[in-house]
Structure to design on (596 residues):
């Protein structure tokens, strides 16, 4: 079985080593590398569709008729001229000048960079959506570096797992670049677990979707995945619209959508500044709105904003002297509501401070809550973003809520529910995302969906429990230690890798069992919604009014643990771990000496 995570990491490590050895900055490197990944995807899909076409291709004079661009258009695939195909570029000779190559306009091609630029232009000629999007800056790469990049992305494993996995690799590279590429205009990448939470709660099926701050397009990609996984076709069922002021980010978005086989209308530049423009004329027309807008933007021109409309609850606070809005959070919130049709749903990321900000913000929030369309509020802890450590909130609107929850709002406090990725990053795993979604299902009275999740847990666990898995894990660790110790020197690394993989599988299953126990301990096997102190509460509009229309988290549960006592326990645990680490280091050193 091919480990996709391992493949992602290996490709990134190889590509990033090349960047480190060049004189290119992350900003210069990001777009060209992602475009090569896109080209690799396009080629993989081209070969797959070409094989399908040739199976039923007519013959003339004993020869199979050649494929044509129209054949690919009929299958929603991109036709690639020979000079734009990935294997053509990979197999170009070292001496490009001697090859006598010509570009699409007839000029001589004198470097590999020029050949790749030509390939990108040929691809754009085949796709209106990609016109002007793909980079043509490959002459800034040394030919040796570019040739090595092409070789890295020509990894045959990609073909073994299928071209669609490149979409996942593209997102992985985006996330890695998000940490390295600084932008004065904001962050272009929203971590996948936050986006998936938005999509899971909104449950898109069909209709018009808008992201007026679309960045690199993660909302579109996850929505497409959700719709496709539900048995529909995202391009048939959904119409995607986006606005992104930063043209660089919009190019990333269009490539991201293309890699995932999605079509959409994305506007960039000044006309895509959502504070002053409704670029697609979508007020009151959207079935879904999703976004992660920039937080706490200041100096927004009040007159221009007012003229642009989309303010059903009025303007936020305006500085009388400068005629500027000091914090645009409630502009975004108003826009998201204004875009919805009478059955639309919205889900967006927002600064935590917006849940109880005062003055004009508070007045807008009162009007908003009293519509009955605020559906769910989720509080998220620190370290969910790649470039920020601040907490945030997820807001959800539903213009067509069930009558029995019309005057209610579900509050979920997920600040202490997450998985640590590393020192600076947290996320929700797939099971954690589904557990949070299950709380929403119960609040909406959809017990069948909760029970479907329990059935999925039981299928994945196949009778295994936390107790049996913990026992199996300890036995496997002991067995692995002995096998590695007894193995001949030449087999040690192989056996260690095999045993580590077995241990990882058990640990993953154990975590699944723990997540099942977490959910069932709160809502039972059959699923009965109840408020859980420190986790979730359903509040009426009247109760929210009594809290001065604050939509922040409820009180944290008092776990009865003495702080100083717990800190002493932690220090004791840390001392024990350090002692164990020292013993382990001695064993490793001893083993190393034996290998010399």
């Amino acid at each position: 079985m091919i480990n996709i995570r391992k493949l992602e990491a290996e490709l990134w490590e190889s590509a990033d080593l090349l960047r480190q050895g060049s004189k290119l900055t992350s900003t210069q490197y990001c777009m060209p590398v992602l475009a090569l990944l896109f080209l690799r995807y396009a080629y993989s899909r081209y070969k797959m569709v070409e094989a399908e076409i040739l199976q039923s291709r007519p013959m003339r004079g004993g020869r199979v008729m050649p494929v044509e661009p129209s054949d690919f258009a009929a299958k929603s695939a991109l036709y690639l001229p020979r000079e734009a195909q990935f294997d053509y570029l990979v197999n170009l000779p070292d001496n490009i000048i001697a090859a006598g190559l010509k570009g699409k306009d007839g000029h001589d091609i004198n470097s590999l960079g020029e050949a790749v630029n030509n390939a990108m232009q040929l691809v754009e000629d085949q796709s209106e959506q990609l016109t002007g999007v793909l980079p043509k800056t490959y002459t800034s790469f040394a030919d040796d570096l570019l040739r090595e990049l092409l070789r890295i992305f020509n990894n045959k494993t990609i073909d073994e797992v299928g071209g669609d996995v490149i979409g996942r690799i593209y997102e992985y590279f985006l996330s890695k670049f998000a940490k390295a590429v600084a932008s004065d205009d904001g962050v272009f990448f929203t971590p996948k677990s936050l986006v998936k939470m938005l999509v899971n709660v909104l449950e898109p099926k069909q209709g018009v979707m808008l992201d007026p701050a679309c960045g690199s397009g993660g909302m579109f990609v996850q929505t497409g995945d959700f719709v496709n996984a539900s048995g529909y076709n995202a391009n048939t069922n959904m119409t995607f619209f986006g606005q992104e002021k930063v043209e660089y980010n919009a190019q990333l978005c269009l490539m991201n959508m293309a890699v995932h086989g999605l079509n959409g209308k994305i506007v960039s530049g000044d006309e895509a500044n959502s504070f002053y423009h409704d670029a697609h004329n979508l007020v009151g027309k959207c079935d879904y709105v999703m976004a992660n807008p920039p937080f706490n933007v200041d100096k927004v021109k009040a007159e221009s904003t007012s003229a642009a409309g989309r303010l059903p609850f009025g303007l936020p606070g305006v500085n009388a002297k400068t005629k500027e809005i000091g914090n645009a959070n409630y502009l975004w919130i108003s826009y998201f509501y204004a875009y919805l049709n009478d059955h639309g749903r919205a889900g967006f990321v927002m600064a935590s401070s917006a849940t109880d900000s005062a003055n004009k913000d508070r007045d807008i929030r009162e009007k908003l809550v009293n519509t009955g369309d605020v559906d769910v509020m989720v509080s998220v802890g620190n370290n969910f973003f790649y470039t920020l450590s601040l907490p945030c909130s997820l807001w959800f609107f539903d213009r067509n809520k069930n009558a029995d929850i019309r005057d209610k709002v579900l509050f979920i406090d997920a600040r202490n529910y997450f998985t640590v990725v590393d020192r600076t990053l947290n996320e929700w795993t797939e099971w954690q995302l589904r557990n949070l979604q299950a709380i929403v299902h119960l609040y909406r009275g959809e017990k069948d969906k909760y029970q479907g999740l329990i059935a999925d847990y039981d299928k994945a666990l196949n009778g295994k429990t936390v107790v049996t898995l913990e026992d199996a894990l300890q036995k496997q660790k002991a067995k692995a230690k002995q096998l590695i110790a007894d193995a001949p020197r030449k087999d040690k690394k192989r056996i260690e890798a095999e045993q580590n993989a077995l241990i990882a599988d058990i640990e993953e299953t154990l975590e699944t069992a723990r997540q099942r126990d977490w959910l069932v301990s709160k809502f039972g096997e059959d699923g009965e919604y109840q408020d859980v102190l420190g986790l979730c509460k359903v509040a009426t509009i009247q109760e929210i009014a009594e809290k001065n229309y604050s939509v922040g988290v409820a009180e944290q549960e008092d776990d009865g643990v003495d702080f100083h006592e717990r800190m002493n326990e932690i220090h004791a645990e840390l001392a024990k771990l350090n002692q164990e680490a020292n013993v382990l280091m001695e064993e490793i050193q001893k083993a190393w000496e034996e290998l010399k």
